[in-house]
Design brief:
The complex is a heterodimer. Chain A is an all-beta fold. Helices cover about 0% and strands about 50% of the residues of chain A. Chain B is mostly beta strands. In chain B, strand 7 and strand 8 form a beta hairpin. The termini of chain B are far apart. The chains are: A mainly beta, B mainly beta.
Chain lengths: ~120, ~110
């Protein structure tokens, strides 16, 4: 069974930093691109970032470029999202998601999410 | 960035009735379109991929159609467990991709 377990969500000050992690199991992590999707309270889904299966390709929604950095450690089956210069509008549940098949496809598995709150 | 627009924002339907949800892309995404269902307090669930293929375990009352810029999700006979928010998402070319703003299906 595929499992994606996010961690690292917390209360952060505006301008601060956080690192989210996503621990994956139940599939060959190194063979799939993985992504982050977020959802602000009461709002819709927003694509955040993605990384190719080998980690060489990273992608970000335009509004987040330069503040967030995605990475992965295939030896640890873990996806990361380094978030810096945090703003109140970054407050959201952050989901880790896996593609159904590798190669830029839809998302067939989602974690339960980790809550990031940015507030003074 | 491709903009995905869903309509209506809210759809009020009685159990057993048909529900039709629309999703429009600001430019062609070919057939690279997925639909997700999200219930309160839960992560989204994949319903449809490649515009019209049901994901594993999804009941046959869910169907998707369309290509290019116009897509439709149809629930043929709404069950109580289908009241939820539905999102479309394109995955054309490489990321970043975008989601629609969602359609909430509630009980009439």
């Amino acid at each position: 069974e595929v499992q994606l377990v996010e961690s690292g969500g917390d209360l952060a000050q505006p301008g601060g930093s956080l690192r989210l992690s996503c621990s994956a199991s139940g599939f060959t992590f190194s063979k799939y691109a993985v992504h982050w999707v977020r959802q602000a309270p009461g709002k819709g889904l927003e694509y955040v970032s993605g990384v190719s299966s080998d980690g060489t390709g990273t992608y970000y929604t335009d509004s987040l470029k330069g503040r967030f950095t995605v990475s992965r450690d295939n030896s640890k089956n873990t996806l990361y999202l380094q978030m810096s210069s945090l703003r109140p509008e970054d407050t959201a549940v952050y989901y880790c998601v896996k593609e159904r098949i590798n190669g830029w496809y839809d998302f067939d598995s989602w974690g339960q999410g980790t809550l990031v709150t940015v507030s003074s | 960035e491709i903009v995905m627009t869903q309509s209506p924002a809210t759809l009020s339907v009685s159990p057993g009735e048909r529900a039709t949800l629309s999703c429009r892309a600001s430019q062609s995404v070919r057939g690279h379109l997925a639909w997700y269902q999200q219930k309160p307090g839960q992560a989204p669930r994949l319903l449809i991929y490649d515009a019209s293929t049901r994901a594993s375990g999804i009941p046959a009352r869910f169907s998707g159609s369309g290509s290019g810029t116009e897509f439709t999700l149809t629930i043929s006979s709404l069950q109580s467990e289908d009241f939820a928010v539905y999102y479309c998402q394109h995955y054309d070319n490489r990321p970043p991709w975008t989601f629609g703003q969602g359609t909430k299906v509630d009980m009439k």
